């Protein structure tokens, strides 16, 4: 399933009457808690069958749409973690995917794929911090190479630090910093995030969006930043920079992305403790 995460609910609702225990659904990518949300919708729609739902940590391609029926692939990422709910099915899913896509590798659980979601770190921050430039030039600049200055990189590092903090509190088996992820996905090795982004040939030529009404905010804020912030609250962690980005996005779009996004209530996790949350994300049940 290759759609913005905002579309996962609609896809799940439409598929619910037809999916069975012999079928596998892979969200490519799931963003944060995509597989859990998809599974919850199937159950809500009355599908209680043992359907395998999996999610990729990120989209396999660094790419951009170039027209109604055209896309440009700038780079194929070299290692994409995938996990299923329940996690015992992950090896089976990856084995089937590897027939066509050898880049997919098994992750320990969807905790790993959801909370190593680098779109949450890069997309909203770079877009929000370049809003005036996007509006004044209609995106006529390279999103990563020109949009990430030294100061913007510092904000990315702060967002990344908060994401990692939440992931570790969830006892994520493998937590990657943004620099480590760039090394894994693109084979870029640097000692700071600014240099790592600017040394990545896969980012060269990727232009900024032509409008601020773009999925980097409308998808990544409610489907990535909101759940990270929500999990932080469970554990008493302060995610000040992430919360600031959510608040700015709310002000720009006159929406409440916390209400419409993947909050604890929507994910069916409200009032649960760490052990119960981990069981749901790893085993698919409390």
Automatic annotation (TrEMBL):
SUPFAM superfamilies under this entry? 6-phosphogluconate dehydrogenase C-terminal domain-like (SSF48179)
Q: Which GO terms describe its molecular function?
A: oxidoreductase activity
InterPro entries under this entry?
A: 6-PGluconate_DH-like_C_sf, 6PGD_dom2, Opine/Lysopine_DH, Opine_DH
> Which residue range or ranges hold the Opine dehydrogenase domain?
107-252
Q: Which PANTHER family match?
A: BLR6086 PROTEIN (PTHR38015), OPINE DEHYDROGENASE DOMAIN-CONTAINING PROTEIN (PTHR38015:SF1)
Record protein name field: Opine dehydrogenase domain-containing protein
């Amino acid at each position: 399933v290759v759609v913005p995460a905002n579309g996962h609910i609609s896809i799940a609702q439409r598929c619910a009457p037809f999916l069975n225990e012999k079928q596998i659904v892979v969200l490519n990518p799931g963003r944060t808690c995509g597989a859990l949300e998809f599974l919850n919708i199937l159950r809500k729609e009355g599908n209680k069958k043992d359907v395998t739902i999996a999610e990729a940590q990120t989209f396999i391609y660094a790419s951009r749409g170039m027209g109604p029926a055209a896309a440009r692939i700038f780079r194929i990422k070299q290692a994409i973690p995938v996990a299923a709910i329940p996690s015992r099915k992950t090896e089976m899913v990856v084995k089937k995917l590897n027939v066509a896509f050898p880049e997919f590798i098994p992750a320990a659980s969807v905790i790993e794929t959801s909370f190593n979601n680098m779109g949450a770190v890069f997309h909203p921050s770079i877009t929000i911090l370049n809003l005036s430039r996007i509006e004044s030039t209609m995106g006529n600049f390279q999103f990563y190479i020109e949009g990430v200055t030294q100061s913007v990189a510092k904000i990315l590092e702060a967002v990344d630090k908060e994401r990692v903090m939440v992931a570790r509190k969830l006892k994520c088996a493998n937590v990657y910093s943004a620099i480590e992820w760039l090394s894994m996905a693109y084979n870029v090795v640097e000692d700071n995030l600014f240099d790592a982004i600017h040394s990545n040939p896969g980012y060269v030529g990727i232009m900024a969006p032509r409008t601020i009404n773009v999925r980097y905010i409308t998808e990544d804020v409610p489907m990535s930043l909101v759940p990270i912030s929500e999990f932080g609250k469970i554990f008493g962690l302060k995610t000040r920079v992430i919360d600031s980005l959510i608040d700015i996005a709310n002000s720009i779009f006159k929406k409440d992305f916390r209400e419409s996004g993947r909050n604890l209530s929507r994910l069916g996790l409200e009032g649960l403790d760490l052990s119960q949350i981990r069981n749901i994300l790893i085993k698919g049940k409390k």
